[in-house]
Each structure stands twice: as structure tokens, then as C-alpha cells.
Amino acid sequence: MAAKTAGAGLEERWRDILSVHARTMCEIDRALHPHGLGASDFEVLDILAAEAPRQGEQCRVQDLVGRVHLSQSALSRLIGRLEKEGLVARAVCLEDRRGVYVTLTGKGRELHTEVLPLQRGVLERMLGGA
């Protein structure tokens, strides 16, 4: 009986985590939509801004895969969309032709700076009391 109760408690906590995540992602999507971004788009821009803080610095796509909760193919499509919008640029790694680098463009850096307070505001509202 105790094992069943402990398991039920874990399931409930897990569902609570998933629920908070889903609600937070929806709120971020809502806040960023007027700027042409979704939550996953912002995550890529945010990671690039943190990992390559100076103009022209690059980040390997492979390094993004584990940090953005998307499959490699979905991440590749997202980066392609951001590239089409002029927010990032891609380049092949000269040392390893299989590797691809992503760079935040000036336009991408400006948009990230503009929407960062919106995303952080949602996080504060949704998670601040947690």
C-alpha cells in the first residue's frame, strides 16, 4: 500500500511539472507572438546570446541539441526558419565538414534584447513563487 501511495505521489508531482511547463511555454508563446517568435525560437536565440555573447561568435548546432528540447531535425528546421528571417546565420565547420555553426546576427541580437524582458516577465509570473 505504501509503495502504491509513494508511486502515486511521484506521478502527481510529475504531472504538476508537466502542467507548469506546458502553461509556461504557452504564456511565452503568447508574449512573443507579436514579435514573430515562439518559445523554442526564443530559446535558441537566448542560448546563442549566452554562448556567443560577442558579435560574430559561433555555436555548434550539436551543442544546441541537448539544450533545446527538440529533435535534431526539428532544431534544424527551426534554425532554417530563423536564418530565413535574418536572425541567425549558419556556416559549415572548416575542421569537420559535418559540423555546422550558428551565429546570432545583429538583427537577431537586437530582437533578443527587445523580447528578453517579456520572456523573463513570463518566467517570473509563472515560476516566481515556486
Would you kindly provide a written description of the structure presented here, covering whatever features stand out?
- This protein has 130 residues and is mostly helical.
- A hairpin with a 7-residue loop joins strand 2 and strand 3.
- It is globular and about 55 Å long.
- 18% of the residues are buried.
- The model has no long low-confidence stretch (mean pLDDT 89).
Describe the structure concisely.
The protein is mainly alpha-helical.
**Mean of residue pLDDT values:** 89
The helix/strand series, from N terminus to C terminus, equals HHEHHEEH
Alpha plus pi helix count? 5
The portion of residues forming beta strands comes to 5-15%
Q: Which structural category do the helix and sheet elements fall into?
A: mainly alpha
Could you tell me the radius of gyration in angstroms? 18 Å
Low-confidence region ranges: none
Characterize the biggest β-sheet: 3 strands, antiparallel
Number of strands: 3
Oligomer: single chain
Write out the strand line-up for the largest beta sheet, numbering strands in chain order: 1-3-2
**Gross geometry:** globular
Helix content range of the residues, please?
55-70%
Distance between the termini: 30 Å
